[in-house]
């Protein structure tokens, strides 16, 4: 994901594989997998630069958590660490991160494997809860974008931090001032409005679950997911990018909700989906520049800021102008339900 495999089997990588397969003979390959053993198993090996340690640790910790939650659904981590003086083959190797995982020979997701993936996510991975709250113990990377993570007591706080991190990056670039102002309105109004009163558990997410990070094992026919950007959050957030770019069969979503009901209030499911998709449109704007992605992010925010919503719970009255001259009212009603109403100025 971050660097190509080494041009030979580094000592530290060989030792890691030998610990996993005692007595195996290892052969280096210029292709994929980078290393094959005499047992026929393949391994992905990566040696990074000194400033890539966070990325290697992020992938390793994500894979470790996913293996606990749903064994075999993602490639198994073999080893991840930093080369020390004892294992260095050259002086400048000291401090470089290394990574080894099992290799899986994959083809595209099929209708059958998509259904199996949906069931395993709903009944295994998205049942694996964090005792520490929402977030993750290390920064993770959605593409090349660093997610600072940390731990939060609520999903509202966690997701606000994720969106806020992207807006902070975009504020440092030219041409996104209007987009960022609208993003701050979403943080102030939409995120609290849709997420504050959700009653959910922090469950393990893949974090970047688009079709390019899924596949079918050619040997077993089982689904495999890889290149994670994991954290503990609302299970529905893991479905967002899967809808954006296509490639994942519709049967996946149908099967998923046969095993995992939509969160209440169910009538806000699509709005929450829009909010979760917004993260990925903003992230792709960060990664690839404006144009279509920035436009899609802007359209999502406009929709979210202009659709009346009824959200269960309590909230004090709040009136503030939007950029287009409208006002958003939060009203506390006698029956303790919160109504988010949009009023146009005359």
Q: Topology, pairings included?
A:
Blueprint: H1 11-20, E1 26-28, E2 35-37, E3 42-47, H2 53-69, E4 77-82, E5 97-102, E6 106-107, H3 111-123, E7 134-136, E8 140-142, E9 145-147, E10 150-152, H4 155-171, H5 177-195, E11 203-205, E12 214-217, E13 223-225, E14 231-233, H6 240-244, H7 250-259, H8 269-288, H9 292-306, E15 309-312, E16 318-321, E17 326-332, E18 337-344
Antiparallel strand pairs: 1-2, 2-3, 3-5, 4-5, 6-12, 7-10, 8-9, 11-14, 12-13, 15-18, 16-17, 17-18
Plain-language structure description:
- The protein has three domains: 11-103, Phosphorylase Kinase, domain 1; 111-307, Aminoglycoside phosphotransferase (APH), C-terminal lobe (Aminoglycoside 3'-phosphotransferase, Chain: A, domain 2, Alpha-Beta Complex); 308-346.
- Helices cover 36% and strands 21% of the residues.
- It is built from nine helices and 18 strands.
- The chain has helices at residues 11-20, 53-69, 111-123, 155-171, 177-195, 240-244, 250-259, 269-288, 292-306; strands spanning 26-28, 35-37, 42-47, 77-82, 97-102, 106-107, 134-136, 140-142, 145-147, 150-152, 203-205, 214-217, 223-225, 231-233, 309-312, 318-321, 326-332, 337-344.
- A five-stranded antiparallel sheet has the order 1-2-3-5-4, sandwiched between helices. Strands 15-18-17-16 form a four-stranded antiparallel sheet, with helices on one face. The chain has a three-stranded antiparallel sheet with strand order 6-12-13.
- A hairpin with a 6-residue loop joins strand 1 and strand 2 (35-37).
- The protein is globular and about 65 Å long.
- 37% of the residues are buried.
- The model is unreliable at 1-5 and 311-346 (pLDDT under 50).
